[in-house]
């Protein structure tokens, strides 16, 4: 029995530590070192007494797993879970700033709520927490002094980058009244403007938006709708960033004066001038850009290069000009709708249009919409969304659809009814996304051999099976063997089947119990049977009255050593039941016994 215990001592544990090991510091430490996790599975006594040592060892182990991202994430999650269990009590005494920052980096900032007040008031420590977590939420635990410091908050905003979502109103509301701070903040991160939408007491400042525009046109996405309709505001915005016209109302966006004003400011940033473009003496452009000859190619070409939708204003003759149209669709694909019928049938122009906007395909000629070679070209270029604009006949072509769903499985939705019944096509789509199965034909979702193949690949695909197959024990068993949580998609009939559920609990996973019928979850006799098959069933009934049922707790310990927490009496029962009383007698062993103490104990 001692040899058996030693063998068990060296085994890797997964969801819990059996009671004979959970209170053993040396076992926990050894398991952590060998397998990269185990802190969160230790007893409360071990964590509170040796938490500091174990977490320091875990930090050291990150170096060992430097090239194994999955292992590092598992270790990080393990540390975070352990810290939450002991409320991070061990971190309150940490004075080593470098060690604390290492821990914050390795745990993506989740350890920050547990550090000392001194650390919460340290700029470098807090910045490390923010960078590691990637959001401002960790500031909930930072000192008030730092959150009210505009210079520090600017460092925080800069550290998160220009695209991060930042809610200043949640953490430093008083800074929303600090105009100097706001101007600097929006120059670093345009999303600061979103704070005005969430702060009903403060209106958005136009000057602030205009200040932000030279840095990014995305400042326009936060402005109220009425501003987008304001000619005065849009003209001023265009002067700061000519691309602001894209955010104007449809009426202003299609206004010739607006387009020309935007173009004027666009070209002021270029190494050429309007005078160089305007070679025609017969065309006069006034200083306010109000007069424009839309029949002059040399005049309109540079404009549509910047604003493709300006193609709608050119003459019918120029809409037939290949160079002009190609320039327009290269800037904005939907400009294809303003091209001549002949150019909508030009493959090169259409391919260029869908490159900038996949929706442009609906404006192509019917000939191209029915062209197999066009569809093939789009697939090869990975411009799959453009296929949606093609004719229905394309979606009856087996080879086209097969290649399309291999790259974008959701395109199965557009396939013909016949191809939605094709095993190979549907399986190819399902391999990439379970959502694609929702578009498969009902007959295929009722095909046992096909669905068996799928649930063996990914158990959660059971959710798309027919109701009949959700009652099929073979199908459900195969799905649960791949992913026990897929039992949630089984029929209510099987969730009530005592014998079938006991089979799953014994041979597959105790987690299936979490999806049993309410009737069985409230049946104590059944739970007693289940616990005797697999003690960790109690873990799936967390919070229920059965977690305090002493008989069930004892049976769980006898079954596989599962216990919610360490208990001397339960430990004695486990050792007597499973190891032939190898530790019978007065129980004197403490949690800091060495491995040798365990196995040299005089039986």
Please describe the topology of this protein:
Elements: H1 2-10, H2 19-22, H3 25-35, H4 44-64, H5 69-85, H6 97-106, H7 117-120, H8 123-133, H9 144-147, H10 150-160, H11 168-171, H12 179-188, H13 206-212, H14 225-228, H15 231-240, H16 250-253, H17 256-267, H18 274-277, H19 297-306, H20 322-331, H21 347-356, H22 366-369, H23 372-380, H24 398-407, H25 423-432, H26 442-445, H27 448-457, H28 473-482, H29 492-495, H30 498-507, H31 518-521, H32 524-533, H33 550-560, H34 568-578, H35 595-599
Helix pairs in contact: 3-4, 4-5, 6-8, 8-10, 10-12, 12-13, 13-15, 15-17, 19-20, 20-21, 23-24, 24-25, 27-28, 30-32, 32-33, 33-34
Molecular structure report:
With 603 residues, the protein is mainly α. The chain has helices spanning 2-10, 19-22, 25-35, 44-64, 69-85, 97-106, 117-120, 123-133, 144-147, 150-160, 168-171, 179-188, 206-212, 225-228, 231-240, 250-253, 256-267, 274-277, 297-306, 322-331, 347-356, 366-369, 372-380, 398-407, 423-432, 442-445, 448-457, 473-482, 492-495, 498-507, 518-521, 524-533, 550-560, 568-578, 595-599. Helix 33 crosses helix 34 (568-578). The longest helix is centred in the first third of the chain and has 21 residues, at 44-64. It is flat, with a radius of gyration of 34 Å. 39% of the residues are buried. Residues 269-291 and 583-603 have low confidence and may be disordered. InterPro entries: DUF4116. Residues 205-253, 302-344, 346-388, 397-445, 447-495, 497-539 form the DUF4116 domain.
């Amino acid at each position: 029995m001692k040899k058996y215990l030693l063998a068990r001592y060296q085994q890797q544990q997964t969801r819990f530590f059996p009671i004979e090991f959970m209170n053993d510091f040396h076992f926990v430490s050894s398991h952590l070192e060998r397998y990269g996790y185990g802190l969160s599975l230790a007893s409360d006594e071990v964590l509170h007494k040796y938490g500091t040592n174990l977490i320091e060892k875990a930090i050291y182990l990150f170096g060992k797993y430097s090239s194994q991202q999955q292992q590092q994430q598992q270790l990080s999650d393990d540390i975070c879970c352990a810290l939450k269990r002991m409320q991070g009590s061990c971190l309150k005494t940490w004075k080593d700033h470098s060690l604390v920052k290492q821990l914050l980096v390795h745990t993506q900032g989740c350890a920050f709520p547990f550090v000392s007040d001194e650390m919460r008031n340290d700029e470098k420590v807090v910045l490390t927490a923010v960078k590691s977590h990637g959001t401002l939420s960790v500031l909930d635990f930072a000192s008030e002094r730092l959150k009210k410091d505009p210079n520090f908050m600017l460092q925080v905003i800069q550290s998160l980058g220009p695209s991060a979502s930042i809610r200043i109103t949640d953490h430093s509301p008083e800074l929303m009244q600090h105009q100097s701070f706001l101007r600097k903040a929006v120059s670093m991160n345009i999303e600061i403007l979103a704070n005005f939408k969430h702060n009903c007491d403060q209106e958005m400042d136009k000057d602030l938006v205009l200040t932000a525009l030279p840095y990014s046109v995305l400042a326009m996405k936060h402005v109220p709708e009425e501003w987008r309709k304001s000619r005065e505001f849009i003209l001023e915005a265009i002067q700061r960033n000519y691309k602001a016209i894209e955010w104007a109302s449809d009426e202003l966006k299609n206004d010739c004066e607006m387009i020309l004003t935007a173009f004027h400011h666009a070209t002021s940033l270029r190494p050429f001038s309007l005078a160089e473009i305007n070679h025609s003496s017969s065309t006069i452009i006034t200083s306010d850009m109000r007069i424009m000859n839309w029949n002059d190619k040399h005049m309109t070409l540079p404009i549509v290069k910047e604003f493709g939708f300006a193609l709608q204003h050119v003459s019918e003759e120029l809409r037939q000009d290949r160079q002009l149209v190609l320039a327009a669709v290269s800037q904005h694909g939907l400009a294809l709708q303003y091209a001549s019928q002949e150019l909508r049938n030009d493959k090169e122009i259409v391919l260029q249009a869908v490159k900038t906007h996949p929706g442009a395909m609906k404006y192509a000629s019917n000939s191209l919409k029915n062209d197999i070679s066009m569809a093939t070209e789009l697939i090869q270029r990975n411009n799959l969304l453009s296929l949606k604009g093609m004719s229905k006949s394309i979606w009856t072509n087996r080879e086209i659809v097969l290649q399309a769903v291999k790259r974008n499985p959701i395109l199965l939705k557009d396939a013909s009814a016949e191809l939605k019944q094709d095993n190979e096509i549907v399986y190819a789509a399902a391999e990439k996304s379970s959502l694609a199965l929702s578009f498969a034909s009902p007959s295929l979702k009722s095909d046992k051999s096909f669905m068996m193949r799928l649930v063996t690949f990914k158990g959660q695909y059971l959710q798309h099976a027919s109701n009949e197959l959700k009652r099929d024990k073979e199908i459900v068993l195969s799905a649960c063997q791949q992913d026990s949580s897929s039992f949630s998609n089984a029929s209510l009939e099987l969730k009530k089947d005592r014998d079938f559920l006991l089979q799953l609990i014994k041979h597959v996973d105790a987690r299936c119990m979490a999806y049993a019928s309410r009737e069985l979850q409230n049946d104590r006799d059944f739970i007693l049977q289940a616990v005797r098959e697999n003690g960790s069933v109690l873990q799936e009934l967390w919070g229920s009255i059965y977690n305090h049922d002493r008989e069930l707790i004892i049976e769980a310990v006898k079954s596989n050593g599962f216990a919610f927490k360490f208990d001397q009496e339960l430990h004695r029962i486990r050792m007597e039941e499973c190891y032939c009383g190898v530790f019978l007698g007065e129980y004197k062993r403490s949690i800091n016994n060495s491995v040798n103490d365990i196995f040299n104990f005089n039986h």
